[in-house]
Design a protein that fits this description.
Length: 166
């Protein structure tokens, strides 16, 4: 009987030790994405753009371009983070020609469609206010809820320098 009590206590002690070491032995390593794996990395990032709405200046703001979950060279996300009219669409991309656009694309912020035309990125096509030569971007957007009224975007890739931000 005494042996059973000792064995029971030893098994509880062993199980407790195993449980504690299983929690302690877990290494938490933060997973950081490797930008080298993004197939459209040459165009991704933040862009500072001047906006013209139906022929009138509508301010300066930022848009973001990032890869889709498929991480291919056929599409990109174009996202103004709701800084202006609200533009977030998965846009067809020709990475070799650095052009993009499409008709009746699903716009995710306001559940409308948007047509993106004349989308182009020019390598070294702009000079920032701080004097850096960077890529330029321009495109037009027409939303289904305001047909016939065109948003024009043109600007440069952000350097994140204070003088270059809107």
């Amino acid at each position: 009987m005494k042996n059973n009590i000792i064995l029971k206590k030893l098994s509880y002690l062993f199980l407790s030790f195993a449980l504690i070491t299983s929690f302690v032995s877990c290494d938490q390593v933060e997973s950081v994405p490797d930008e080298n794996d993004i197939l459209i990395s040459e165009i991704t990032g933040t862009w500072v753009v001047d906006m013209i709405y139906d022929g009138d200046p509508a301010g300066t703001n930022t848009i973001s371009i990032y890869n889709t979950s498929a991480n291919d060279t056929q599409f990109m996300w174009l996202d103004d983070q709701e800084h202006s009219w609200g533009l977030k669409a998965k846009v067809p991309l020709n990475l070799d020609a650095l052009t993009f656009g499409g008709a009746d694309l699903e716009e995710l912020y306001y559940d409308v469609t948007v047509s993106i035309t004349e989308g182009i990125i020019v390598k070294g096509g702009a000079t920032t206010p701080s004097g850096d030569v960077v890529d330029s971007i321009s495109f037009k957007a027409e939303f289904s809820d305001i047909p016939g009224e065109i948003w024009e975007y043109s600007g440069y890739k952000s350097t994140a320098k204070i003088n270059d931000l809107p």
